Amino acid sequence: MSYFTKHRQHPGFKYFSVSFGILLVFIFISISGLVSMYKVTNRIYKLIETANLAKEIFFIADTVHSKIGKTNMAFL
Fold it and tell me: Per the confidence metrics, is the pTM higher than 0.70?
């Protein structure tokens, strides 16, 4: 009789195998949840980064409102 079949009959081994199986399921669910959250965060962050870049380009190219808030000292 092998080591595995001899210890498989003990109730402690059954409890350990069930609890270890539950632990593996929770680890798998946690890892898959973290990976999916990372993918969603990257997808949203790319949209925000693109919008911020477009806004910065607009403000740099905006010559009409570029002098607001600056004092014009040319008359001195």
Answer: no
